[in-house]
Amino acid sequence: MTAGNTVGRSVDDQRTVTIPSGGSNSGSLTPGEYSQGTFQTPAALTGTTITVQFSNDDTNWTAAAAAISVSADSTYVIPADAFKAKYIRFVSNGTEAAARILTLFLKG
Prior knowledge:
Elements: E1 13-19, E2 36-40, E3 49-55, E4 62-63, E5 68-69, E6 75-77, E7 87-92, E8 100-107
Antiparallel strand pairs: 1-8, 2-6, 2-8, 3-4, 3-5, 3-7
């Protein structure tokens, strides 16, 4: 998964999740009926990788794939396995120096 990979030009839904300042885990979101998507990183990041995790209870998390090497202001594919669960979150390998908002583009 590299920068520039997108699922297509049409977007059914756009959402955001935030990794708080001093944290590494984003809040969770429910993918609902969506089955694919991408996420865009903000203009600044402390971490160098993002792991997409999924859960059916919003407590016990499993990595959807290997950590994705990321850079600022780039777009990456969300692993398909993440959409099979009730919840998705994003985990940075670094403690973020400021709140980081990831923008998600989801498709059904």
